[in-house]
Design goal:
27% helix; alpha+beta
């Protein structure tokens, strides 16, 4: 089965009114368009364009045919990944996602407590984890993982804020995950008055350094932006502990469980395990469960470098540790290729036009390809992304010349 999908646009407040519309070749929207969901997640399932039937219903009716026997058994009849187009006009919240074990336990606890699934203070919407891969379609800015402590000490020295001196000393005495955990936990558990005072003082210190040419010049700029959006929010301090990364088109970052991060701005493709579990750490008006956040965070400092695709013939593959998903793309120039299909896949056009069998797709349009398809003939010109299950990495046949 090869079917075009009708997908749900999530109108979150941080979304862009123009980015996804421009990708579709349309005028700007009259409301924010933050995420386009492609998959079978129950909160916003895709539908078949031909019949209107929901993708989860199609899979439930014939799980072995749609998913393949192995994936059907491993993931209990569920599509294990969720594909999104993301367009951030303003920064998202500081957040992390749980491990599989943490998600299962947290979901069971929320269920046992009788917390409604749509309650704003509920932490776990499903029992699944949410490792994710973000691939930039244009310039994209993000905060990702705790920065190595020596660099953070240099940042604090340059900031020269007396109110941060005790925390600088604590990090210097323990320049590792334990020092980061102690400092971050202290900030998150401080009184509301203490948090506001520290956040305001930090924002003023960053503002005073705008226009500097130091290695942290971009950090000061984003800190001021965050402080303007969320005055007095202690999440600003957490943001200063994280790696600031700028992605160019085609560059990606992989976010495993426990990685504290925030997407700041830009348009990207996001592929993740099919989950909507988010634990927030600030820079948001939404619920922040501090004890639960501290329980799931991985405080180990990391250096973050953009992830680049690896060439597998004509296919450019982003290699990650994820079992639930695999992201790749093809750049074609009026070519035709044949792709073996061994599991469920979603194909998404970001530039140009393509034919997938008898299905025609333009930019921002996608199609579901079932496991029983056997193979897929792809023809067109532009760039098309392929989302599949991580444990399956079939090779691609060489292109056949038209005619």
């Amino acid at each position: 089965m090869i079917e075009e999908l009708l997908n749900v646009v999530q109108p979150y407040a941080w979304g862009s009114r123009s980015a996804l519309a421009t990708l579709r070749g349309e005028r700007p929207s009259d409301k924010p368009e933050a995420e386009l969901w492609m998959g079978a997640h129950p909160l916003a399932p895709s539908r078949l364009a031909s019949t209107g039937e929901s993708l989860p219903a199609v899979i439930t009716r014939q799980p072995a045919l749609q998913l393949g026997n192995a994936i059907d058994q491993q993931y209990r009849g569920k599509l294990p990944f969720l594909l999104k187009l993301l367009a951030a006009a303003t920064p998202l919240s500081l957040q992390a996602h749980p491990s599989l074990e943490q998600a299962a336990a947290g979901y069971a606890a929320d269920e046992a407590a009788g917390i409604p699934l749509d309650a704003p203070h509920r932490n776990y919407k499903d029992p699944n984890h949410k490792p994710e891969l973000l691939c930039a379609l244009g310039e994209f800015w993000a905060l990702c993982g705790f920065r190595p402590v020596p660099a953070t000490l240099m940042l604090l020295d340059e900031l020269e804020l007396p109110a941060l001196a005790p925390y600088r000393k604590s990090l210097a005495q323990s320049p590792d995950q334990h020092g980061i955990q102690r400092v971050f936990s202290t900030w998150m558990q401080a009184s509301a008055e203490a948090q506001r005072a520290l956040a305001d003082a930090t924002a003023n210190a960053c503002r005073a350094r705008l226009g500097s040419t130091s290695r942290f010049a971009e950090v000061w700029g984003w800190a001021v932006r965050l402080a303007e959006l969320y005055p007095g929010d202690i999440g600003l301090l957490g943001a200063l502990l994280l790696n600031l990364i700028r992605l160019e088109p085609g560059e990606a970052i992989y976010l495993p469980a426990g990685n504290l991060h925030a997407y700041l701005g830009g348009t990207a493709i996001e592929l993740m395990a099919s989950s909507d579990n988010v634990l927030r750490g600030g820079l948001t008006p939404k619920h922040v469960d501090v004890p639960e956040l501290l329980r799931v965070l991985d405080f180990r400092p990391i250096s973050v470098e953009p992830l680049l695709p690896q060439a597998h013939g004509l296919e450019q593959v982003y290699v990650t540790q994820a079992r639930e998903f695999r992201l790749s793309y093809f750049d074609l120039d009026s070519e035709s290729i044949t792709v073996p299909i061994t599991g469920p896949e979603i194909w998404l056009v970001v530039r140009g036009a393509f034919e997938l069998g008898s299905v025609s797709l333009g930019p921002a349009r996608s199609a579901f390809v079932s496991a029983d398809s056997g193979s897929l003939v792809v023809a067109g010109k532009g760039r098309i992304f392929r989302a599949s299950v991580g444990t399956f990495a079939p090779t691609v046949a060489r292109p056949a010349q038209p005619g």
